[in-house]
Amino acid sequence: MPTPTDTPAQVIGACPHDCPDTCSLVTTVAGGTAIKVQGNPAHTHTGGVLCAKVSKYTERTYHAERVLQPLKRSGPKGSGRFVPVSWDEALSDIAARLHAIARREPEAVLPYSYAGTMGLVQGESMDRRFFHQLGASLLDRTICASAGGEALAATYGGKLGMRMEFFAESRLIIIWGSNSIASNLHFWRYAQEAKRNGARLVCIDPRRSETAEKCHEHLQLLPGTDAALALALMHELIANDWLDHDYIARHTLGWEPLRARALQWPPERAAQVCGLPVEQIRQLARDYGTTTPAAIRLNYGMQRVRGGGNAVRAIACLPALVGAWRHRAGGLLLSSSGAQPFARARLQMPQLLGDRRPRTINMSTIGDALLHEGGGRFGPRIEAIVVYNSNPVAVAPESAKVAAGFAREDLFTVVIEHFMTDTADHADYVLPATTQLEHWDIHGSYGHTDVLLNRPAIAPRGQARSNAAVFRALAAHMARHDAAFAAPHFQESDEALCRTAVAQTAIDFEELLQQGFARIPLPEAPFADGGFATPSGKCEFDSSALAALGVNTVPDHLPNHEPPTDRHPLAMISPPARNFLNSSFVNVASLQRMESRPLLELHPDDAAARGIADGDRVRVFNDRGEHVCHASLNGRARKGVVVGLGIWWRKLGENGTNVNQLTHQQLTDIGRGPCFYDCAVQVTRMAG
Ligand SMILES: Nc1nc2c(c(=O)[nH]1)N[C@H]1C(S)=C(S)[C@@H](COP(=O)(O)OP(=O)(O)OC[C@H]3O[C@@H](n4cnc5c(=O)[nH]c(N)nc54)[C@H](O)[C@@H]3O)O[C@H]1N2
Ligand SMILES: Nc1nc2c(c(=O)[nH]1)N[C@H]1C(S)=C(S)[C@@H](COP(=O)(O)OP(=O)(O)OC[C@H]3O[C@@H](n4cnc5c(=O)[nH]c(N)nc54)[C@H](O)[C@@H]3O)O[C@H]1N2
Ligand code: SF4
Ligand SMILES: [Mo]
Prior knowledge:
iron-sulfur, Prok_Mopterin_Oxidored, alpha/beta, molybdenum, Molybdopterin-dependent oxidoreductase, iron, binds iron/sulfur cluster, Rossmann fold, 4 domains, binds ligand MGD, Dimethylsulfoxide Reductase, domain 2, 688 residues
């Protein structure tokens, strides 16, 4: 840790946010205060550039509303009334409460965390050890990527794909279900380089996003119809024999059934389902079948629908059909996280469970789980929940139920946070967490393939503690009730945990200490000569692993759970706003100003049919609830689809809701994921 000094020092860190770019940060510190956070020019993928959000990281860190001391609830649940208490008082009481529940029914305790920080130490180390020792319920962390992730694993054997940097050499780039400019800015820089070298850029997205408008071609399809489009592309590849027969024969499994499936999808049929001009589909097939190298940047935006897993599988088959994998600038990238070398089991210590096998709760149905809906399916009622790195009351689907669950007076709730989020408002105890400038951590990426170290740049603000420090201290208090918590693995420091994460891997910790990042040694073209990590060693068009799960083994188009109806005739998607990171940064004034207020983008025809003008107050509703916001006729929404940009805090919404008031808890075909973009609504104009 740097000692306070008047000479500015520069500390190398890593961006902690749930973003595929995992930038290397340089924080300038003077007199113990962080002055500014910039992109590290020495790190190739960062290239000295940060997004607008993290450029404001000091504004977030020194925010006047940071929680800087432990707080105890003093009013009714959800009232947001708290009084300060000492760490010792808070932790003694929390340990006693958790112990009392756990000695009777350990599964009644539930940890709830996601990717507020992606760091291994602050995200999945001491916390996991603590809950494993307790025997608490396990959490199925499905809220973002599990449909696509498991679909990709069924097809390729893991979350692997093209290296991000080689997109710069591609001749055709299909950006599929991703607003790269908003959510993957450093990939967009490579795509721009390719464009300058003559590459064609195509975007597939129901919304005319910032990215779509900068591509040569935009296929503005209906949400949840990507598999139909992919199958029609295959149909055309077959019909015109734009196939790499040698690659198919040597490196794929199940070509005959996939071929039969694709032949059921002539472009005319897909055009109807997708709401696209048939010629646009034919043109894309021609481009894809005749351009080498061709690359697909698939992202998680398109898998938040019922058939999201099948859609990812259908798209993931395309590169093998044309042999795109033969070239390092060809293939597909959804996630590169499978390349991370970390010793996760050494951090999380699942062996602390012993022979206990706790039930697993799906985080995407936390509303039902807390309300104990589904009865026996969930087992014992959840009596205590410990939330960190997540804001479920704002981000989980069907939030009326999530909020009602968190409002249960009999639920003991601990929230470790930077701010009084919608979730923290419902806590019994709020514990102050450090930000990335204040703690150690180590990071992999799901976009590029480097490992980064985050060094603390400043001392913790107020009484804030890192997540790992909180769980160390909690374990020490638990040890008064249960000696198992006195074991040395509950005392490992944050810096030591960083070393444990890369112990016995190809990553040299000294290199990380010196320059802040290190490269994972990897082949340039992962599947040039096959070598898929599937059971067959091939790209599995037909997946035996899925057969065991009762899922169709050859990808197909599955219609949405909620197709539009007469009562709810508009499909709603709710992708992230550019200047927020999920529900993080929503309270940073300069960024909030850029996003103005909760908006619903509508197509001018859909607006006119409802007498709605730009800026009007509107009521968006379905049978689950209503959300009040303002109409935006900015030309981004297609007919029949509305876009509610996320994810505002509920308490900042006009009627105390956000878009998740409207979303439902049904799950994806593969991976048990949420279906945020598979949602039907109606919209009306409101007075005033
Ligand atoms: N600025 C910013 N960056 C972020 C985030 C953020 O909140 N803000 N969130 C981060 C996180 S957690 C994640 S998971 C990633 C997500 O990264 P991406 O998956 O790239 O997500 P988005 O940028 O939301 O892009 C999703 C796009 O998919 C479109 N879409 C919606 N439904 C469909 C569909 O059915 N088919 C197709 N083809 N497209 C569809 C949306 O209109 C949107 O433009 O981004 C990360 N980066
Ligand atoms: N309608 C709709 N809903 C969505 C989505 C959507 O596109 N549409 N996107 C979904 C996706 S992709 C995702 S990934 C989820 C994201 O959901 P979450 O993972 O819950 O992400 P955030 O909303 O950013 O909340 C993270 C919280 O962690 C806190 N935090 C950050 N760092 C630390 C730390 O070091 N310690 C502690 N204790 N806390 C910390 C932050 O202050 C923040 O409040 O939301 C999902 N919800
Ligand atoms: S949010 Fe993404 S683009 Fe922004 S600094 Fe972090 S890693 Fe880089
Ligand atoms: Mo996500």
